[in-house]
Design brief:
Layout lengths: L1 E2 L5 H16 L7 H15 L5 E6 L2 E9 L1 H4 L6 H22 L8 E9 L8 H15 L4 E7 L3 H9 L3 E7 L1 H7 L3 E8 L2
Parallel strand pairs: 4-5
Antiparallel strand pairs: 1-2, 2-3, 3-4, 5-7, 6-7
Helix pairs in contact: 1-2, 2-4
């Protein structure tokens, strides 16, 4: 595991879009290239925060994870002009608003895990387990005692994986708005205590 480098953003996004474009697409009016450009710029502007990580095997990125803390949330930047340039004004308003809703509120004791994904050629080979274990290592080394994440209730494989990794359900949320803009109505907020 290592911090993402600027010349690896395209590889990171290839994995992210393979895993999540179905969820991300509606936020960006299902405009894949526009979403790609916006998210690429956003990651590039925020690389210095150290929240985007890559699992690497033989110099190839095989998994991605974003770790959000109270500390690395403060300086997080988005570019509304990038949204307008790629989506037009009304599309930008919608996407910008809903991507802000997606940003979690994180307390000082927690690392929020976002966008865990594995390259399709490396799934079921322990990559996701290694990434969650690394997130735990980072959390402990920074004095955090919780890992939290949201998972779509219909994503049974992910839900089962997180349960096996020691996560438990904190909250269930059902939202017609989330269904309309993210394709999933029901979400489970999960936690893993590190004490």
């Amino acid at each position: 595991m290592r911090l993402l480098k600027s010349d690896e953003i395209n590889d990171f996004l290839a994995i992210e879009f393979d895993a999540f474009f179905e969820k991300l697409g509606p936020l960006y009016g299902n405009r894949r290239r526009a979403a790609y450009r916006i998210i690429k710029e956003e990651i590039g502007m925020n690389l210095d925060l150290g929240r985007h990580l890559a699992a690497v095997y033989n110099d190839r990125i095989v998994g991605i994870i974003e770790l959000i803390t109270k500390e690395n949330s403060r300086g997080y930047r988005k570019s509304f002009p990038s949204f307008v340039k790629n989506l037009g004004f009304f599309g930008a308003m919608r996407a910008y608003f809903f991507t802000f809703l997606d940003m979690p509120a994180v307390d000082r004791s927690t690392i929020y895990i976002n966008n865990v994904a594995v390259d399709k050629d490396f799934r079921k080979k322990g990559v996701a387990t290694a990434m969650i274990s690394y997130a735990e290592y980072i959390a402990r080394s920074r004095g955090k005692d919780k890992l939290k994440l949201w998972v779509a209730n219909d994503n049974k494989a992910a839900f089962s994986f997180y349960r096996k990794m020691g996560f438990y359900q904190l909250m269930f949320r059902s939202s017609k708005m989330a269904q309309h803009y993210m394709g999933y109505r029901d979400w489970v907020f999960m936690c893993r205590d590190l004490n």
